[in-house]
Amino acid sequence: MAEPQISRKKTTLWNLFYLYVNNIISIVRGILIIPLYLAFIDTELYGAWLATGNILMWLTLFDPGVGDVAIQKLSFSFAKKNIFELRNQVSSSIIISLIISLIACVAGWILSFYLDAIVGISDNIDKANLLIAFNISILSTVVTLFSFSLSGCLIGFQRTKEVGVIRNVTAVIGIFVNVYFLFNDYRLISIALGGFVASLLAVIFYAYILLKVIKKENIGFGFDLKFFKEYNKIFTFTFIGKLFGTFAQNIDLILVSRFIGLHEVTILELTRRPIRIIRGIINSPSIALLPTISNLYGEGDTIKLTTIITKTLKLFLFGLIIICGGIIAFNEQLINLWVGNKFFIGGLLNTVIALTFLTTAFSYVVANMTFSLGKIKTNSIFEIIKNVFSLILLVLLGKCFGLWGIVFASLIASVFSELWFYPLLLDRIIMLNRLKTIQGIKELFITFIFIILVALLISNFLAYNTFITIILFFFYILFSLIIVSLTSNETKLILVKLFKYRKFELY
């Protein structure tokens, strides 16, 4: 087997670079292009499309996380240079992914007959346009599901650069296809066609690069029935966890549609859209580290591993707190400049959404780290429990309190489940330093109180004036950096090195 040609550091940096490029593309696709949609597509029709997006996400429940497992397993085996495991992990991942993609295709086709009943579409909606777009998006989702195994295998081989290039180039092509057909009066169908072209091209390029890598590393393909059965056991837990997770995370818009109305679907989704884009940006550094974490764990370098994880989490949390405050202070102004204030959900609910972002984004990163450290079964079992709890809260509170209940349900579910479980699990794996952990919690708590108070104060002084908003934004950033520097000496030193352009390492 050939020696790995790409270092862990380069793997992480390439992964991070292309994740940020992908975030920029997501901003174009998820933010900048929305006013164009609203200009060509009726608001209620677009609201119905957003609600059907939840159904499309349900199809992803058939994927038990093949790509994620492939990243963890192949990174681990690649560090140990175990050709037998690598050969069978690649083959097993592709076979399983192909099977679930075919099942998802059949399920999507069946669901298309019940689209009206599930979403609750009014008679004045163009149902024909919606149904065609939905069916095309089913194919797009199915192809995307299959692509996860291919891209996961490539990342496991530390080929993050190739995956990043393919992902971003095909996404840009998809946007151009989308805009072209939108201007040719295809309305919702244009969105679906853009996604389908992007996913199909991605699969073709992933498959081509993976074949080259397998040949270069002298791995080849193989099928061992005993290995396949053992490999499949992992997905028993990940599938059930993904099943409940997909429903819990993608049922809120349908509940809003059923309990309140399609107009409120658009309001909730557009208020959260910038936050979802921001979450993708803030999650990128931690996601970029995941192949490195699995690879280091495979080598048994626990000291370096622990140092990277603890420093990453601390920096990540400080960044999350600053962004959470920024959402509270400036999201209303952003929505107003973007699509108009009529699509803003309101100050209090926006604050709740911002706090939910803080808790879930932190939990997501810690969960990914424990997953990369081999706790696949434990993570999956807890995901089942957490998402059942979340589903119950969403339905009960949504039915009783409408939009308020749905927004608060997400925060309550996060605080009382994942916010405490994953940090405790991580502590069991890498044995965090107790004194440093307690000190870090104190620093973060002080920072949180000061930043959130200032954010609430700023939110009451916005007057839809762009110049004033820019001034307040720079004041908020400066204030946040000062608070972080005063409360955490370790973070202050890192910030100083950054501003002085000095090279620093996480370990």
Structural class: mainly alpha
Shape: globular
Main sheet summary:
none
Task: Tell me roughly what share of residues is in helical segments.
Answer: over 70%
Beta fraction: under 5%
Q: How big is the Rg?
A: 23 Å
Poorly predicted ranges: 1-5, 501-507
Please tally the helical runs, counting DSSP H or I stretches of 4 or more residues.
Answer: 19
- The overall strand count is 0
Succession of helices and strands: HHHHHHHHHHHHHHHHHHH
What is the overall pLDDT average?
81
Total domain modules: 2
| Intertermini distance | 29 Å
Question: What is the quaternary state of this protein?
Answer: single chain
Description:
There is one protein chain. The protein is mainly alpha-helical. The chain folds into 2 domains: 1-236, no CATH class; 251-507, no CATH class. The protein is built from 19 helices and no strands. The protein has helices at residues 8-32, 34-40, 43-59, 66-80, 83-111, 115-119, 127-156, 160-183, 188-216, 225-249, 252-259, 262-299, 302-338, 347-372, 376-415, 418-430, 434-459, 466-487, 489-499. α13 packs antiparallel against α14 (347-372), α14 packs antiparallel against α15 (376-415) and α18 (466-487) crosses α19 (489-499). The two termini are 29 Å apart. The model is unreliable at 1-5 and 501-507 (pLDDT under 50).
